[in-house]
């Protein structure tokens, strides 16, 4: 039941592979959004200029704005661009989901074998056990349905936000150039808000598909598994791993439990954990578990990094012993999405420190 250094090497190898997929998606979507804004910026600027002219240098009424043909045409151009970008987001996400799911499925046998006696029949069986050929396709189809049902209003909502921005106007005095520049910045910000949502959608669905495929792959090894371990990325760049992920790292869960149900864009993974060698019939010494203790890793960090991860008050409560390490993470419900574990708010930690409930 010991997770070995070889297991951790394989986990890191898969994490890097999925990270490469996410980086490719990010670069593709960011570049597409930049090109799209460059393409429509002239039309948007012309529409704003017409609005200002219609108001004789002042911000006109909503009725006047809605009668300016160039401004309404600009909204149509924006809507068309965002629709194309939404379709690109969907295609990039599904491609990423397919690749990430395949990596997870193909890797489970090696993860299991790395924890079994080298050269044993069980290790060989684990390494060469094949998954069902239609598994990845099923995950991709399920993701496509989820995107359509929950996330597809991307273009409509971003366009509506930009229309509200046009009608709301800005209080900047009578200078038309100042008004036009401010409005242009605001509209570009609304447009790029669609990019932030697209990236969140693509990354989260890709990571969830990777974890789901790992869960399915591990089901084929249940005869030798004792559960799965929540694995966070403890050695990432400063502040990237959140307090919740630190707290959940290394926790062991039964095979029947889905997960890890990480927060949106969370990169935690699910690592299979075999039964003890004695339970599997091997009368030989078993190596120690190589999973890092997350609290020890955190406490060994420089103080500025600890502060960057926890924040001042959360760190004070933790270091003083007023809250437990496990209090940092909290299961929460998000409308329109699955339950997930995220960082417990400081106000709730303050209540726990005063002796309140952890629920």
Form type: elongated
Strand content: 5-15%
* Main β-sheet, spatial strand arrangement: 2-1-3
Low-pLDDT stretches: none
Roughly what percent helix? Answer: 55-70%
Verbal overview:
There is one protein chain. With 359 residues, this protein is mainly alpha-helical. It contains twelve helices and five strands. The strands form two sheets. The protein has a three-stranded antiparallel β-sheet. Strands 4-5 form a two-stranded antiparallel sheet. A hairpin with a 7-residue loop joins strand 4 (329-332) and strand 5 (340-343). Helix 3 runs antiparallel to helix 4 and helix 3 packs antiparallel against helix 6 (154-168). The chain is elongated, with a radius of gyration of 26 Å. The two termini are 32 Å apart. The model has no long low-confidence stretch (mean pLDDT 87).
Task: Write a brief caption for the model.
The chain is built from twelve helices and five strands.
Keywords:
359 residues; mainly alpha; three-stranded antiparallel beta sheet; two-stranded antiparallel ribbon; 5 strands; elongated
């Amino acid at each position: 039941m010991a997770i070995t250094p070889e297991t951790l090497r394989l986990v890191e190898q898969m994490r890097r592979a999925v990270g490469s997929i996410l980086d490719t998606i990010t670069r593709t979507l960011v570049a597409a959004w930049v090109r799209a804004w460059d393409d429509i910026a002239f039309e948007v600027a012309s529409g704003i200029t017409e609005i200002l002219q219609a108001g004789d240098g002042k911000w006109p009424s909503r009725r006047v704005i809605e009668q300016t043909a160039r401004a309404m045409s600009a909204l149509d151009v924006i809507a068309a661009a965002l629709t194309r970008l939404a379709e690109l987001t969907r295609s990039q996400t599904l491609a990423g989901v397919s690749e990430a799911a395949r990596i997870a499925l193909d890797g489970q046998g090696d993860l299991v074998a790395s924890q079994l006696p080298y050269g044993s029949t069980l290790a060989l069986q684990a390494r060469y056990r094949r998954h069902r050929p239609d598994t990845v396709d099923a995950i991709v189809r399920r993701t496509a349905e989820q995107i359509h049902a929950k996330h597809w209003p991307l273009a409509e909502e971003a366009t509506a936000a930009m229309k509200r921005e046009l009608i709301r106007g800005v209080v900047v005095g009578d200078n038309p150039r100042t008004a036009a520049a401010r409005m242009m910045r605001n509209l570009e910000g609304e447009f790029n808000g669609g990019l932030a949502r697209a990236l969140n959608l693509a990354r989260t669905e890709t990571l969830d598909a990777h974890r789901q495929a790992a869960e399915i792959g591990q089901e084929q090894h249940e005869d030798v598994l004792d559960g799965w371990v929540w694995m966070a990325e403890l050695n990432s760049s400063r502040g990237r791993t959140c307090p919740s992920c630190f707290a959940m790292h290394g926790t062991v869960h039964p095979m029947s439990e889905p997960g890890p149900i990480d927060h949106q864009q969370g990169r935690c993974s699910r690592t299979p954990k075999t039964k003890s060698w004695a339970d599997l019939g091997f009368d030989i010494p078993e190596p120690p578990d190589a999973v890092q203790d997350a609290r020890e890793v955190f406490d060994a960090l420089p103080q500025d990094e600890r502060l960057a991860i926890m924040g001042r008050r959360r760190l004070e409560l933790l270091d003083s012993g007023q809250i437990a390490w496990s209090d940092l993470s909290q299961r929460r419900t998000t409308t329109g999405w699955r339950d997930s574990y995220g960082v417990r708010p400081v106000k709730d930690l303050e209540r726990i420190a005063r002796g309140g409930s952890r629920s």
